[in-house]
Amino acid sequence: MPDAPDHATPRHGTPRRTPERLAQLPSRLLAETAAHGDRLVTAGLAAAGMRKWDYAVLVTLQAYGPASQAELSDWSGIHRSDMVSVLNDLAAAGHVQRAPDPGDRRRNIVSLTPTGRRRLARLDRLIAEAEDRVLAPLDPAERTELVRLLRALAAHHAG
Amino acid sequence: MPDAPDHATPRHGTPRRTPERLAQLPSRLLAETAAHGDRLVTAGLAAAGMRKWDYAVLVTLQAYGPASQAELSDWSGIHRSDMVSVLNDLAAAGHVQRAPDPGDRRRNIVSLTPTGRRRLARLDRLIAEAEDRVLAPLDPAERTELVRLLRALAAHHAG
DNA sequence: CTGATATCAGTTGTACTGATATAT
DNA sequence: CATATATCAGTACAACTGATATCA
C-alpha cells in the first residue's frame, strides 16, 4: 500500500501526522519509546530526589559489593569523568562510603552504607512502578518478548 | 534465581558486567538499543552529508506535499525553533524551496525540489541499510514483532 | 484584542574530551 | 619508562525556552 500521493496539495480536513514511512522506522521507534521510558524513570526517581545514575551505582554496589570507581564505571555504564560527582552526591547523602584502598593507593573503595541499602530498597519499588508504566499497554507475554528482542539487539551491538 | 550475593567481596577471575537487575530493565534496554540505532542511522546519513532531521523533513514533504514550517514541525517531530536552520541548510543545498504563502503571509510554503527528490531516493537506500544493521540479529518475524510492540508503546504514550 | 508564525538568542542537560596529579 | 586511577575543566551537541516582529 503506497503512501499519500507525492506532491499532494494539502486538503482541509485531511488528518496529518508523522508519515507512516517515518513512524515505522525501528530506529525512530526505539528513540521515541526510549525517551518515554527515560521520562517515566526520571520522574519516578525524582520522587526520592535521585537520578538514574545514582540508582545504577547503588544496584551495582549491591550486586557486586565494594568496588573502585573505575570498576563502577565499567559495570554501570557511567563515564569515568561523571562518576566523581555522582559519588560526591551519594557520599554527601550518606548512601555510599569512599575509602582509600590499602592495597592500591590510586583507588578508592566505594561501598554501600546501611542508609544506602535502605534507600535502594525504596528506589527498587519506584523503578518497578516506572517500568510498569513504560510497558503498560503490553500483556506479560508481550513484555517478556520485548525484553528478549531488545536484549538480542543490545548483545549484538555490544559485541 | 538470585543475583550475586550482596556484599560479595570481589574475587579474582569473577567476570563482571552490568548487573542483571540493571541490564534487564526495559527503560535501560530501550535507551541502549536506541543509542545504537541512532549511531548507525547517523553514520549512514553522514555518507550523504545529511542528518536525521533532514531526512525526516524530506520524507514528510514527499508524503504530504508542500507545507508550512509549523506543519512540518508537527508532523516530523522537529522543534519549531530548530526547523529554521534545518530548512536553511536544505534550501542552500537546493533540496527544498521556501516561498511566501499568498493566502497567509505569516507562512512559508516549503516544497521539495527535483534535486531534493533525487536526494531523498538515495537517503531511503542509506536508511534501509542502516535499519537492517540495527535489526541484524533478528529474523523477519522477530523484526515485525518488535516493530509491533514498539508501536504499541509509542501509541500508548502519545495518547 | 488574541493567537499563530517564523526567527533568533540563549539556556539546560548530558555525553564526552583532554589535562593533571598520583600511584603501580 | 608505560599504564591505571581519580579528578577537574572545558567542549560538543541536541532539546528546549523565551523574546520579538509580523500577520490573521
Counting DSSP H or I runs of 4 or more residues, the number of helices of chain A is 7
The total of beta strands of chain A comes to 2
**Most residues in contact: chain pair:** A-B, 69 and 68 residues
Distance between the termini of chain A: 37 Å
User: What is the makeup of the main sheet of chain A?
Assistant: 2 strands, antiparallel
Helix content of chain A: 55-70%
Estimate what percentage of residues of chain A fall within beta strands. 5-15%
Strands of the biggest beta sheet of chain A: in what spatial order?
1-2
Order of helices and strands of chain A: HHHHHEEHH
Q: Rg of chain A, please? A: 21 Å
**Structural class of the helix and strand makeup of chain A?**
mainly alpha
Low-confidence stretches of chain A: 1-13
Oligomer: homodimer
Shape of chain A: elongated
Give the topology:
2 copies of one chain form a homodimer.
Chain A lengths: L19 H4 L2 H21 L5 H13 L4 H8 L3 H13 L3 E5 L7 E5 L1 H21 L5 H19 L1
Antiparallel strand pairs in A: 1-2
Helix pairs in contact in A: 2-6, 3-6
Chain A binds a DNA duplex (24 and 24 nucleotides) through α5.
What would you say this structure looks like, in words?
Two copies of one chain form a homodimer. The relative contact order of chain A is 0.11. Helix content of chain A is 62%, strand content 6%. Chain A has seven helices and two strands, in the order αααααββαα. Chain A has a two-stranded antiparallel sheet with strand order 1-2. In chain A, helix 3 crosses helix 6. Residues 1-13 of chain A have low confidence and may be disordered. The longest helix of chain A has 21 residues, at 26-46. The radius of gyration of chain A is 21 Å and the shape is elongated. Chain A is mostly helical. Chains A and B meet through helix 1, helix 2, helix 3, helix 4 and helix 6 of A and helix 1, helix 2, helix 3, helix 4 and helix 6 of B. The structure holds a DNA duplex (24 and 24 nucleotides).
